[in-house]
Amino acid sequence: MKEKGLKHCSVLVADDSAASRTLLSTTLKDLGVDVVHTVPNGVAAIDYLRLSAKSSIHSPTPPVDLVISEWDMQPVGGMMLINWIRRHLDSPDRFTRTVIMSGELDSEKVERARNAGANAVFAKPFSISSLRKHVLHVLFNNPAFFKSQTYFGPDRRRNSPEFVLEERRRVKKPYSEVLGGGEHPYVGCFDLPHYYSEISLGKPRDRIDYAERNFAHQQLAAHSEDYADWVRGDAEVLRLAFRLADENPDMRARSMSLMGALIQRLEREGALLGYPLISAFAHTLDNTIKTDVHLWDQTSEIFAAALSGLDTVVRQDVRGEGGEVGRALSESLRRLNKKLLQLRPLHIHRQGVARFG
């Protein structure tokens, strides 16, 4: 049964499974969604969001009302996509409704998705009634959005201890003010009009007054982030794991194995999100931890130097080729890779053929 309120809706589905994309698209259209665009990963989703923000509802890439994303995709997954929508400098609409789905959903993933600013989370496989419930709830519920030092997203205060009692109120105008208290003294509240309710009634998008949302975006601009900001935490995790491996020989193999997934994610994401040198240094880190653990004395020096290079990219926000700083970093990376090549011949690893840039 088609829902009248979804007739003018535009949904973006990001899922690396073609079968899942087809199922979601078909089900959403059966529910009455007018436009469903599907993409295979987070990078394609970001590209579409950038493009659609400049379009009208009658174009092949209409503005997006709702993003439904699979958690685990490569090269960029659902969590990074949510982070980009909510926090990135280039996000065209940081208030876009977002839903995360996963076939391996647990309480930890639910909490991480909520902390990233997702409006809802649901498990796969899903029923038609479950999908319908989530879509209608997310689109027709209009929560205030909050910005604290550690969070930006829809109102989640009922289930979160970080907001103290006196913060349990909405601020109409101005859209942000210091509410005080707790560990997060600054809380900006953005209680915007329910734009989708107007869209659902058939009001042309070009006749909707987005002045309040635009003003909110202006206020949020000073608090926007970039991919390098998010990698800082990853670099700290790598430093701690490396220190553990260096100080505890019995833990080296396990520590390097645990670092592997994080390093490989950075290698996949960096270049795609504007930081090719993050990918390059992560590539060298990956090859280093794949080297025989018995060569630790030699490889640990290379690993530490590559991690230092990664820190420099993040700290100095070296985007693209990076100009003079980028050339210096690339040269240092070339020397590190040369040292690594001298330690071992190229050979087949469990992850595939080793590559040295």
Please state the structural category. alpha/beta
* Main sheet characteristics: 5 strands, parallel
Q: Which strand-content bin applies to the residues?
A: 5-15%
Helix content: 40-55%
| Element order: H for helix, E for strand | EHEHEHEHEHEEEHHHHHHHEE
**DSSP, total strands:** 10
What radius of gyration results from the CA coordinates?
A: 23 Å
Total number of helical segments? 12
- For CATH, the homologous superfamily of the largest domain is named as Response regulator
Q: N- to C-terminal separation?
A: 55 Å
Give the CATH topology of the largest domain. Answer: Rossmann fold
Give the strand order of the largest sheet, numbering strands 1, 2, ... along the chain. Answer: 2-1-3-4-5
Summed over residues and divided by their number, the pLDDT gives a mean of 85
Low-confidence blocks of residues: 158-185, 346-357
Domain Response regulatory: 10-139
Pfam family, one: Response_reg
InterPro entries: CheY-like_superfamily, Sig_transdc_resp-reg_receiver, ST_Response_Regulator
Protein name: Response regulatory domain-containing protein
